[in-house]
Design goal:
alpha/beta; 416 residues; F-box domain-containing protein; ten-stranded mixed beta sheet; 10 strands
Length: 416
């Protein structure tokens, strides 16, 4: 069933009497979770909204959200973002991903109070990447759904402030019709902080299409992005990014790194999902001096232990602000040498950062007395560590969502 279906869910008899006393919403719009534009006038007619004194709706919003998470445990998480949108759409539990949205939509229709509570939770994440009818029609289904939902939201300004995370699959199918409302919607959402784009293995959008539709746009509130390398042009529109994760960079090695270097992201702190050579790292350290966390993929095509040459750990010593090095490997890999090498790299980073701060301290005459009285306060004392994420063995071409869930996580603090 589409999230934008015109078929309204039938209400249980127990709540009909309660709903009869409320304003009569447009059935089509109400079933979508979108209120009429004259909600304020209708609220005045219905009278002031009183909080519930007992029952389910009297619980704090945080607790209600926690209860719902138990009722609907299947949600799109990091591991799903790292595989193809078609893999999710073709899985046997595709419908399970939609249960949470359907439950929230029904709860938001029970009463005025439930609407106030559950409508923001329902629209906190705009999700258009799944199809309840997988197969060759999935391209058309997702494309039509994204266009329909974007246009619906553009006409529903009262929902814009609720949306904080956008999770979509972008296809070449009808991109000339789908992209414009999608880009316009991103420009209108004031509180969006995360953009997640699942990659596709067929009907891949042309990189030129991203450049044409996103040129001149700016999304200042977006701080976290997950995307395939072919969608890298979007990064130019997000000047305040703090975290970038690439879920597919095959076929375009180095393109994503070159884009990051070219645009310069001074607030960038975390990068995951792609390899950076020693020369680009030096350039990246200059335009993004705040990098604090790097994830290195040590899961190569065979079961052999990843060596220092493969991981290229020594190159990361140019990142003075680096605090965490994450190494992905298979469950039985021996990473003793790699952990030692990564620890040495973090010590070099700490020494370089301390030297830089002391140099700046001496140049800043206004801070001379403070540095002499308590020099240790001028150095960031945040703990540095090496984090090892171990996974079950599988080849790169046969990976599913479960292959991106570590079976064990080890942390090794580094003394500097």
């Amino acid at each position: 069933m589409s999230l934008w279906s015109d078929n309204r869910l039938e209400k249980p008899p127990a709540i009909i009497a309660m709903l009869d006393t409320e304003p009569k919403f447009n059935p089509k719009i109400h079933s979508e979770g979108i209120a009429p534009t004259n909600c304020s006038e209708m609220a005045k007619i219905a009278g002031p909204l009183q909080p519930a004194s007992k029952g389910f709706l009297s619980l704090p919003t945080e607790l209600l959200s926690h209860v719902i998470s138990y009722l609907t445990p299947v949600q799109i998480r990091y591991e799903h973002l790292m595989i193809s949108a078609y893999c999710i759409g073709s899985s046997s539990n595709t419908e399970d991903f939609l249960v949470r949205l359907r439950i929230l939509r029904v709860l938001s229709q029970l009463s005025r109070l439930s609407r106030v509570i559950f409508l923001p939770i329902l629209w906190e994440r705009l999700q258009v990447c799944l199809t309840s009818k997988p197969g060759w029609q999935s391209h058309r289904y997702i494309g039509d759904a994204l266009e329909r939902k974007c246009k619906g939201l553009l006409a529903s300004k009262h929902l814009w402030s609720y949306v904080k995370v956008v999770t979509v699959a972008l296809l070449e199918f009808y991109s000339s019709q789908v992209m414009p409302p999608f880009v316009q919607l991103l420009s209108e959402l004031p509180n969006i902080h995360t953009l997640e784009i699942l990659y596709v293995t067929s009907d891949i959008p042309n990189p030129g299409s991203f450049e044409a539709h996103f040129r001149g746009r700016t999304f200042p509130s977006i701080e976290k992005v997950v995307l395939p390398a072919y969608a890298r042009k979007i990064l130019r529109c997000c000047p305040n990014l703090r975290e970038v994760t690439c879920n597919r960079d095959l076929g375009e090695p180095g393109e994503l790194v070159d884009t990051l270097i070219h645009i310069g992201l001074p607030k960038l702190e975390v990068i995951r999902g792609f390899t950076i050579g020693s020369v680009p790292l030096k350039r990246l350290s200059k335009v993004s001096p705040s990098l604090r966390c790097i994830r290195v993929d040590g899961r190569v095509f065979t079961r052999r232990n990843p060596t220092g040459d493969i991981l290229q750990l020594s190159a990361y010593s140019v990142l003075r602000s680096l605090r965490v090095i994450e190494i992905e490997c298979f469950q039985n890999n021996n990473l003793d040498f790699s952990v030692k090498l990564a620890s040495d790299v973090l010590r070099i980073c700490a020494g370089n950062e301390s030297a830089t701060k002391n140099h700046r301290s001496r140049k800043d005459t206004s801070n001379t007395k403070m540095s002499e009285d308590n020099p240790s306060k001028s150095i960031d004392e945040e703990v540095r560590l090496v984090r090892v994420l171990r996974y079950e063995y599988n080849t790169i071409y046969g990976r599913t969502a479960s292959d991106f869930v570590p079976v064990k996580v080890e942390e090794f603090p580094v003394k500097t």
